[in-house]
Structure formats: structure tokens, C-alpha cells
């Protein structure tokens, strides 16, 4: 940064120094304000202090870079000139708003100050200038309240209490009933509170006010709320926020003024009609805060919701007409659905913000598909418009339409989805209970940014107050949590132990079910049904499938999971964990018998019991997957998961195997390992006890033959050996696998292709992949174990301390969720290169959990693997992520 660095970018009056492409420097809000100003839209003039200033501020012990003050002062006087006012001037005082604006939108997480520049002197100037004393004093008291809270960090309850008491004393219900005189008295009271709490009077120097607010906004980049939000949304701390200082326009200037928020399409359903809310004679945050219930934007919405209060279309037709023109211009310009903030000051429309609107997954799909059909975007762009993570919302159940219901409450359908859980009334408790594994529904009067952790922990959210754009609604939609808000009949008792609705009581801890798509709350747990994935979803998926290179398979063992996967578009099975086929009660005894057998003979007896079960399992799997590849992994049981623990379990095995219980107990004790994840598992078991894998290979091949005879279609089993570290392990086992496979084919007098390959899940295997590929016809990267062994980080134990690593920035992501490109990724790349060198046509896939994580899928595309394999419900996510990875490949 040099002395001449430009720290401040102005906008307004039909031009701007920045534009929409400068989001990194100006933040989202600043860049879009500049863009709107250049488009000739009515934007109050202002300037943006860059995110670089934020970085300098934190790098230099909260000091600002040289030259900033002069640039701010120059920009401020330019703003004053544009509007014909002057900052601090007694007769024509320029007032400004000071707002945060990071690169990625973080709604409500950082600080905002409005009406800045008001003092005991300038407020009189504003009163004269506007000819409306009530408005001027209302603005001043708002400013004192907001500034005291945000900048001076005083206790806001004292201010709220004073106002409530004042209103009660005069039998007022709404703020709008307060007169100018009333506000003057409240202001005197407010200033007294400030002086008592602060030990000095409320600052009367506008310059001091301005820098206090700028400090507070930059400071709020690292407040707890913002830190939590960033962590949840993977926003790097290094990005910093910009600060926007903008001339105030007033929505609280009487009945011809208003403030509102709007979306150019419905953010919940994606329907192509304008959607929003507004409040007459109100300012900025009133709409979002959910304190007064706002009115609808359009006549259509008012009628649909059965509201009496007129819509904006009816109450302010001229301003509405202007707004509609702006909607069209912005949507065509940005080619995406916009989320807009506006103010009407004495009938004139002003634009305060636009950004690509947050939306539900359902809306995202519909908007992408519609915009493509409208010719606004291309198919491949539409594919890239939907966040694969968000599909999760659609892949989850909704309420069973035939299930009986006992409705407790109705409210607004703020965020779709269905969820059941215990009622809790505060966010800390919601978080604590969720950590204990309980499903909770957070019920609040309204939510604020302080509730973010509770909302995240909860399965669903219900609020008594607030509209569709209230904090609860916006945040819940972003998180994909079902939410019902503005449930006016909901009365939460002060004790926070129960709520009532028309006399009906629901206690804390009672189970309720919420339906966010309908805006309803039911008593008890209502059964749910799986979603139908047709319409927009199916259409977008076809476009995604056209665009992707990689195949998508699923990890599945049961015919049910395999069917779900196939219905979701899986193109085969990438991992069938055979040990998971043994968890059922009748099978686990036989498996325990096999593990605990003292001799080969004992083991063979146990295996003979297992063989028919395995064969029939494989037959079912092959039948569901006819025509598609199925990778079956030979047994890989971490022993501790299978050893009998209780006397009762030992007794069961003793009975079934006619072995002595005490002997079995001793043997189980002997087999106990200190470190089972690195113990006698995977192919090591096959090396020690060849008969186990021999039985499995026989079952696989007999099943394949049976299905070929039954359907006439070829089945190509891919037999996979787990946890290989050395070529020799695989070589040894491969001889036996081939022997059994060929003899089964001979017995059946059939010809059938099969492949033998290995998991790559140990660093040594990756590093010696060229040798291993001499034996292996395919590799499947087991990145769960590869992550565990590369980091030396236990899959089972790390959850207790990983959060410390994340909080302190050692890990930005959990490496078991998102693949670590630098370390684990490097090993994958080495193995790909070495594997292909030995065997150019080697088949390569990934079957660790990362196979269903969109960020990891991006890496897998870059690494050039042939397919990803993930859990059945993630199949559509993987299909979309694979398409985006290909389309956006760097
Ligand atoms: C792996 O290690 O990534 C893998 C898929 O195998 P498992 O999770 O069964 O150990
Ligand atoms: Mg593994």
C-alpha cells in the first residue's frame, strides 16, 4: 500500500468510481451501490471505505492508514454538495448512514448506524428544513438509541424501558402516536441514560460521531456473531468488511414516506412474481426487525394472505410503478433474482441496496430453470446457479399428507421443510440439547443475530413476531432450517417454561412438528414422506448430467439403499461394505462365531452359515443394479465393532457354536486391540484367515452367475481388497480370489468378466501405487482412512478436539468432511499418476465420505478420477457438483 492508495470510492448523482466487479475491494453492498448509481438508478450519494482499510486496521493495532481521514473528508463534502447540504451544518445538516458490507453477505451480523450527524443543534435545522418537527425528533431519538447501543455499547434495555413507560403513561400503543413534544421529552431521558452509563454526555460533534461509527463497523467484523457466521459459512477472516457512508433518505417523514424490502421473485417458491414487504412512516431496520408487522407489496399477495391493510401497489401506486421498473432493470442487468432495500421519502423512490437474493433450494431450482427458458441465462449457467449443498433441503422428507395431525398454531411459511423436536425457548439451551443428540425446535418471540447458534443447532424455528423477511426467516432459509414465523397467537410465558395458543398450553420439552412450507405447527411427531424429485429438479439434473464428465456411484449395501441410489441417478455402486451386511441380529452371531473361532475348522463352520446369506444379499444388489457396475469390498471390520461385549452376547455365540462361554470370553479378551483402526482389519484379516475372503468371493461369483442366468444380462462384479499397503498383500490375495472365481464360473459353466482392485487408503499405498497397479485393475480412494492415516488423526476420537483446531484457524474445514488438498490431495495425485503409468486404463474412483462433498468433488474432477461414490441421498448433490466442477474447472 502506497501513500497514494485510494481508500475511498464515491458513488451517486448518476456515476460512481467503482462497479459490481469490485466486490472484493468494496464489499457486496458498496459494489452494487456503485453499479446502481452508474445505471442511473436513484441511489442516495455516498462513499465506500474499502476492505483493504479493514485489513490495515487489524494489522496495525486498530489504526487507520495514512491519508484515509483526508479522503473521507473530501468524499463527505462531495456528498454534501450533491444533495445541497453540509455535514454538521446547523441549518442544512447532511445526515448519513454508516453500514457494513463484506464481500459475502452476512445479514444482520455486523453493525449499522442511521441518522448520523444529528445533534442538539442540527436536529432543529432538520425540523425547520423538513417542516416536520415530529420527524426530526423521532430521527434524533432513533439515532441516540442506535448509536448508544452499537458504538457506545450501552445497555439498550434502559432505552426501551424508558420509551415503553413513557408510552404507557400516555396510553399510546404505537410509536406513530408519539408527538414531536413527546419525542423531545424521551430524548432528554435518553441523554440522561447515556450520561449516567457513560460518565460523559452524548457526543455532540458530528465528526466524532462519524469516526465512532466507522470504528464500530470495522470492529464488528470480529464480534462473536460475525465470527460464528463466518465459521458456519466458511468465510475467511482475511476478507474484511467495507464501510458504506451514505446520505440519509427518510422513510419516517410521515404518511407519504415508507421503507421496504423486496425480491424480484418469490424467494421461497421461486415463482415469478414480485415479493416483499413495506412499512409506512418507518425507517430502515424496522421491517427486518419484525417489531411492526409490515404490509404486502402487491395486491395479489395481500389477497392471497387475506390481509386488510392495503398493499404498496394500492397505497402508493406511483412509487410502486417506479419500483417495478427498477426490478425489471436490475433483473435484466444482473440476470439473477435480486433482493432489494428501498425507501420512499415523500413519494420519491430511493434504492438502498441490491444483491442476488438468498433463496430456498426449491426456489433456486425454479428460478434457474425459468430464467433459462426466458432466455436470460444458458443451460450451463443454470446448472451453476444452484448450490449443490442446498439440494439437501429437497432430499429431505415432508409431512405425510395422510398422517393425522393435531394443529397447534399457524404462522407464515418462512422456510420449507418438516421437522419434529422438543420445544426449547432459548438458544443456549437449544445448542446444549442438540449436543446431547436431541432434536429441538427453537421457539422465540423473535430472533436476533445473538440466536444464530441456537438456530443452527435446532431442527426448526418458530417465532411469534416478524414477517417473511425478518431475521428468523432470512437466516433459517439460508441455513435450510424449516421455519414458521409471525405466529401472532403464540404467547411465550415469561418463565420460558411453556407457551400458550388460545388457552392451549405446550410445555418446554413437549414434542412438536413444524411444517415450514405451510407455516403450521402440530403437536407430537407427525410422520414424514420422501420427496418426489420431478419437475424443475429433474430438468436441471438432465442439464447437469449433460455437462459432467465424472460418473456418480453410490455407497450402498442393502437393496433398499441401492434402489434409493438408483432412483436418485446413481450409475452403479462404488462401495458395498460387506461388514455392514452383518449387523443384523441373526447374522452378527455367526460373524462373532467366525471371529472367535479357535481353528480353521471352527471358522469354516461359521462361514458356511454366512455364505448363503451373503449370496442372497449380493443377488438382490445385482438385481437392483442390473447393467451397472457394482464394487464389493471384501470384509474390513475394525474388530471392536464386532466383538461381543456383554455376557449375554457371549452366551448367544456359545449356544450357536457349541463352544464354551468362558473360552469364548478369554478369546474375545485376547482379540481386544489397543488401536483397532490400525489393527487386524482389512486385507490383514484376509492374509491371516484366507477362508473368509474365499467364502465372500464364492458368494459374489455365485450371485453374479445366478443373476446372469435369471436376467440374461451381464453383471460385472468389481472385487475390492481393503487397506492394502504393499503390492505383495494384493498379489497374495489376488491369486486366491482368481482361483475361487474361476472355479465358480466353471461350476456354472458361464463366462463372466470380473475385476480385482484395491482401496487406496494408506499413504504407503498411494506412494507405491505404480507397484500396486501391477496387480490392481482399479483403485478406489478410501479418503476416510487416507485422511486418518495421513494426519495421524483418529476418525473416532478427533471430534472432541477438532473444534479447537477450527476455532483457532489451524483447520478451516474439518478434513474428514472436505478433502485436504495439500496433504491428502497430494497423495491422491501421486497415486493417480503412478497408477496410470503402470496401467493406463486403470479405473479410478473415490468412495470416502468426501465423494459426496461438493468442494471435494471439485478436487476429484481436477485430479481426473473417473467417478465419485457417495451415500445414496447425496447422489443428486454429487451429480450437480460434478457438473459444476467440470464447467468451472480452472
Ligand atoms: C475409507 O476409508 O474412506 C472407506 C471408504 O472405507 P471405510 O470408511 O469403510 O473405512
Ligand atoms: Mg477405509
TrEMBL record:
- The residues covered by the PEP-utilising enzyme mobile domain are 439-519
Q: Kindly give the InterPro entries that the UniProt entry links to this protein.
A: ATP_grasp_subdomain_1, PEP-util_enz_mobile_dom, PEP_util_AS, PEP_util_C, PEP_util_CS, Phosphohistidine_dom_sf, PPDK_AMP/ATP-bd, Pyruvate_phosphate_dikinase
- Which residue numbers delimit the PEP-utilising enzyme C-terminal domain? 534-885
Q: Which residues form the Pyruvate phosphate dikinase AMP/ATP-binding domain?
A: 24-60, 62-373
Q: Which GO terms describe its molecular function?
A: ATP binding; kinase activity; metal ion binding; pyruvate, phosphate dikinase activity
Q: Which SUPFAM superfamilies match?
A: Glutathione synthetase ATP-binding domain-like, Phosphoenolpyruvate/pyruvate domain, Phosphohistidine domain
Keyword Magnesium listed? yes
- Domain of life assignment: Bacteria
Question: Is Transferase there in the keyword field?
Answer: yes
The enzyme class is transferase
Q: Which positions are annotated as binding substrate?
A: 577, 633, 761, 782-785
What reaction does this enzyme carry out catalytically?
A: pyruvate + phosphate + ATP = phosphoenolpyruvate + AMP + diphosphate + H(+)
Q: Which UniProt keywords apply?
A: ATP-binding, Kinase, Magnesium, Metal-binding, Nucleotide-binding, Pyruvate, Transferase
Catalytic residues of the enzyme: 471, 847
Listed cofactors: Mg(2+)
Enzyme Commission (EC) number = 2.7.9.1
Annotated residues for binding of Mg(2+)? 761, 785
Family membership noted in the UniProt record: Belongs to the PEP-utilizing enzyme family.
Give the protein's biological function.
Catalyzes the reversible phosphorylation of pyruvate and phosphate.
Q: Could you tell me what this protein is called?
A: Pyruvate, phosphate dikinase
Q: Whose protein is this, by species?
A: Hyphococcus flavus
Amino acid at each position: 500500500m502506497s501513500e497514494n492508495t485510494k481508500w475511498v470510492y464515491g458513488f451517486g448523482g448518476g456515476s460512481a468510481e467503482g462497479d459490481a466487479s469490485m466486490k472484493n475491494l468494496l464489499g457486496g453492498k458498496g459494489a452494487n451501490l456503485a453499479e446502481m448509481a452508474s445505471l442511473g438508478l436513484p441511489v442516495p450519494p455516498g462513499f465506500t471505505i474499502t476492505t483493504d482499510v479493514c485489513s490495515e486496521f487489524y494489522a496495525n493495532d486498530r489504526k487507520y492508514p495514512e491519508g484515509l481521514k483526508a479522503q473521507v473528508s473530501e468524499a463527505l463534502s462531495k456528498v454534501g454538495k450533491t444533495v445541497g447540504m453540509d455535514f454538521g451544518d446547523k441549518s442544512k445538516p447532511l445526515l448519513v448512514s454508516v453500514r457494513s458490507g463484506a464481500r459475502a453477505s452476512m445479514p444482520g451480523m455486523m453493525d449499522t448506524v442511521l441518522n448520523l450527524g444529528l445533534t442538539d443543534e442540527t436536529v432543529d435545522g432538520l425540523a425547520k428544513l423538513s417542516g416536520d418537527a415530529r420527524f426530526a425528533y423521532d430521527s434524533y431519538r432513533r439515532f441516540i438509541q442506535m448509536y448508544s447501543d452499537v458504538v457506545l455499547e450501552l445497555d439498550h434495555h434502559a432505552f426501551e424501558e424508558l420509551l415503553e413507560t413513557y408510552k404507557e403513561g400516555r396510553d399510546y400503543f404505537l410509536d406513530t402516536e408519539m408527538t414531536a413534544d413527546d419525542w423531545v421529552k424521551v430524548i432528554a431521558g435518553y441523554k440522561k441514560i447515556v450520561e449516567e452509563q457513560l460518565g460523559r454526555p452524548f457526543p455532540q460533534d458530528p465528526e466524532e460521531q462519524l469516526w465512532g461509527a466507522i470504528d464500530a463497523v470495522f470492529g464488528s467484523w470480529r464480534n462473536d456473531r460475525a465470527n460464528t457466521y463466518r465459521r458456519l459459512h466458511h468465510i475467511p477472516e482475511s476478507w474484511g468488511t467495507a464501510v458504506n457512508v451514505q446520505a440519509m433518505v427518510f422513510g419516517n417523514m410521515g404518511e407519504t414516506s415508507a421503507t421496504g424490502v423486496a425480491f424480484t421473485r418469490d424467494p421461497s417458491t421461486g415463482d415469478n412474481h414480485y415479493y416483499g414487504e413495506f412499512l409506512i412512516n418507518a425507517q430502515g431496520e424496522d421491517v427486518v426487525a419484525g417489531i411492526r408487522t409490515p404490509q404486502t407489496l402487491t395486491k395479489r399477495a395481500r389477497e392471497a394472505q387475506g390481509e386488510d391493510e392495503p398493499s404498496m401497489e394500492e397505497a402508493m401506486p406511483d412509487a410502486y410503478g417506479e419500483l417495478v421498473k427498477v426490478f425489471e432493470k436490475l433483473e435484466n442487468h444482473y440476470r439473477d433474482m435480486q433482493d432489494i432495500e428501498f425507501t420512499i421519502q415523500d413519494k420519491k423512490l430511493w434504492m438502498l441496496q441490491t444483491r442476488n437474493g438468498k433463496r430456498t433450494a426449491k426456489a433456486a431450482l425454479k428460478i434457474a430453470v425459468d430464467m433459462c427458458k426466458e432466455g436470460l441465462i444458458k443451460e450451463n449457467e443454470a446448472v451453476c446457479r444452484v448450490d449443490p449443498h442446498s439440494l439437501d433441503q429437497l432430499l429431505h422428507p415432508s409431512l405425510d399428507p395422510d398422517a393425522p395431525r393435531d394443529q397447534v398454531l399457524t404462522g407464515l411459511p418462512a422456510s420449507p421443510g418438516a421437522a419434529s423436536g422438543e420445544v426449547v425457548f432459548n438458544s443456549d439451551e437449544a445448542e446444549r440439547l442438540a449436543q446431547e443428540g436431541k432434536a429441538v425446535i427453537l421457539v422465540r418471540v423473535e430472533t436476533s443475530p445473538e440466536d444464530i447458534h441456537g438456530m443452527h443447532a435446532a431442527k426448526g424455528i418458530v417465532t411469534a413476531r416478524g414477517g417473511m423477511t425478518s431475521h428468523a426467516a432470512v437466516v433459517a432459509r439460508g441455513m435450510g432450517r424449516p421455519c414458521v414465523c409471525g405466529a401472532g397467537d403464540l404467547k411465550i410465558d415469561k418463565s420460558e417454561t411453556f407457551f400458550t395458543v388460545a388457552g392451549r398450553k405446550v410445555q418446554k420439552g413437549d414434542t412438536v412438528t413444524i411444517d415450514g412450507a405451510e407455516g403450521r405447527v402440530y403437536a407430537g411427531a407427525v410422520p414424514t414422506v420422501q420427496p418426489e424429485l420431478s419437475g424443475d429438479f429433474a430438468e436441471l439434473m438432465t442439464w447437469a448430467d449433460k455437462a459432467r464428465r465424472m460418473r456418480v456411484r453410490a455407497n450402498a449395501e442393502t437393496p433398499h439403499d441401492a434402489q434409493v441410489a438408483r432412483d436418485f441417478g446413481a450409475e452403479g455402486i462404488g462401495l458395498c461394505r460387506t461388514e455392514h451386511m452383518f449387523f443384523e441380529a441373526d447374522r452378527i452371531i455367526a460373524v462373532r462365531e467366525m471371529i472367535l473361532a479357535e481353528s480353521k475348522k471352527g471358522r469354516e463352520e461359521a462361514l458356511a452359515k454366512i455364505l448363503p446369506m451373503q449370496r442372497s444379499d449380493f443377488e438382490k444388489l445385482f438385481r437392483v443394479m442390473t447393467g451397472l457396475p457394482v464394487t464389493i469390498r471384501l470384509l474390513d471390520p475394525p474388530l471392536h465393532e464386532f466383538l461381543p461385549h456383554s455376557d449375554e452376547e457371549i452366551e448367544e455365540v456359545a449356544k450357536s457354536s457349541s463352544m464354551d462361554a468362558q473360552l469364548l470370553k478369554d478369546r474375545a479378551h485376547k482379540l481386544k486391540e489397543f488401536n483397532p483402526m490400525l489393527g487386524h482389519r482389512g486385507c490383514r484379516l484376509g492374509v491371516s484367515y484366507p477362508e473368509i475372503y474365499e467364502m465372500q468371493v464364492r458368494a459374489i461369483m455365485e450371485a453374479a452367475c445366478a443373476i446372469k442366468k435369471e436376467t440374461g444380462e451381464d453383471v460385472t462384479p468389481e472385487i475390492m481388497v481393503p487397506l492394502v499397503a504393499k503390492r505383495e498383500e494384493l498379489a497374495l490375495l489376488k491369486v486366491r480370489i482368481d482361483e475361487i472365481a474361476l472355479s465358480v464360473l466353471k461350476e456354472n459353466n458361464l463366462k463372466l468378466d470380473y475385476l480385482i482392485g484395491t482401496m487406496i487408503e494408506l499413504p504407503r499405498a498411494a506412494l507405491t501405487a505404480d507397484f500396486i497397479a501391477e496387480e490392481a485393475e482399479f483403485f478406489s480412494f478410501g479418503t476416510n482412512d487416507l485422511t486418518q492415516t495421513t494426519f495421524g488423526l483418529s476418525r473416532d476420537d478427533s471430534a472432541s478436539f477438532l473444534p479447537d483446531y477450527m476455532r483457532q484457524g489451524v483447520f478451516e474445514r474439518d478434513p474428514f468432511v472436505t478433502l485436504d488438498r495439500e496433504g491428502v490431495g497430494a497423495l491422491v495425485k501421486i497415486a493417480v499418476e503412478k497408477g496410470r503409468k503402470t496401467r493406463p486404463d486403470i479405473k479410478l474412483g473415490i468412495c470416502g465420505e468426501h465423494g459426496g462433498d461438493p468442494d471435494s468433488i471439485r478436487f476429484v474432477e481436477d485430479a481426473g478420477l473417473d467417478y465419485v461414490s457417495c451415500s445414496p441421498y447425496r447422489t443428486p448433490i454429487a451429480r450437480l457438483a460434478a457438473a459444476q466442477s467440470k464447467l468451472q474447472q480452472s
